Amino acid sequence: MRKIKTIIVATRNEGKMNEFRQALKDLFEKIYFLPELPFFDDLKEDETSYVSNAMKKARKVGERFGIPSIADDSGLEVDFLGGRPGVTSSRYGKNDEERIGRLLTELEGLPWDERTAKFRAYLALYLPEPERYYVFYGDLKGIIGFEKRGEYGFGFDPVFFVPSIGKYLSELDTHEKNRISHRGKALMALKEFLRSL
Fold first, then answer.
1. For the segment 170-187, what is each residue's pLDDT rounded down to a tens digit?
2. Phi, psi (degrees; rounded to nearest 5) at 14
3. What are phi and psi of 196, to 5 degrees?
4. What angle do CA 54, 31, 124 make, to 5 degrees?
5. Is residue 34 in some structural domain?
6. What is the torsional sign of CA 107, 111, 112, 118?
7. How many domains does the chain have?
8. Most buried of 69, 103, 107, 113 (most Cβ within 10 A)?
9. Which of the residues are catalytic?
10. 51 in any annotated domain
11. Burial 63-99 (b: 16+ CB within 10 A, else e)
């Protein structure tokens, strides 16, 4: 397999773009993101699994431009909620504020040691001609706090406390977050694979 020089990251999420750009800047000659391309389809995450969502997005963009592409799907799984919101995390509300508000309301009155949760991330690499996929995984265990903290991050980061470092994800800059986060771990696995080509 030849070395991949150009890649498309199938996201319009500014926070994710920053994380991908930081993690992959030394691997490719050119990294494209959806806002830079004439791509206007809505990449809905309406599949029933993280992997299916990631593969669907990567394939749709990769086929459109005939270039290798990557896409991720990730979610927050709260033990007390039976693993919700899970694969529907991005649909848990209209925006981050609403999603966090709903989560904190559902956990209201629950003690600290019962607020355990996990982030999961699945990253799909799509290669055209011949068509093939590779999937990479990362996770991160933590606790859902009682209120928002920190000024970085996006999504549920402001309420996700990481006991191993004693900080909330939103208290970490992009470089620090990529070292420990679920998506950062999936990206590291992707990088190891690409460097082996």
1. 999 999 999 999 999 999
2. -60, -40
3. -80, -10
4. 15
5. yes
6. negative
7. 1
8. 69
9. 73
10. yes
11. eeeebbbbbbbbbbbbeebeebbbbebbebeeebeeb
Which tokens belong to 25? 């800047």
DSSP state of 144: E
* For residue 163, cis peptide bond before it (omega within 30 degrees of 0): no
109: left (phi over 0), alpha (psi -120 to 50) or beta: left
Q: How many CB atoms lie within 10 A of CB 39?
A: 17
Of 139, 158, 122, 154, which is closest to residue 15 (Cα–Cα)?
Answer: 154
Whether residue 130 lies inside any domain: the answer is yes
Query: Where does 27-128 show beta strands of DSSP type E?
Result: 30-33, 69-78, 116-127
Q: Which two tokens stand for residue 19?
A: 């994380």
pTM above 0.85, yes or no: yes
Q: Which domain holds residue 145?
A: 6-195
CB 139 within 8 A of CB 119: yes
Q: From the CA atom positions of the chain, what is the Rg in Å?
A: 17
Give the CATH number for residue 21.
3.90.950.10
In a domain, 136, yes or no: yes
Burial class (CB in 10 A: 0-12, 13-18, 19+), 147: exposed
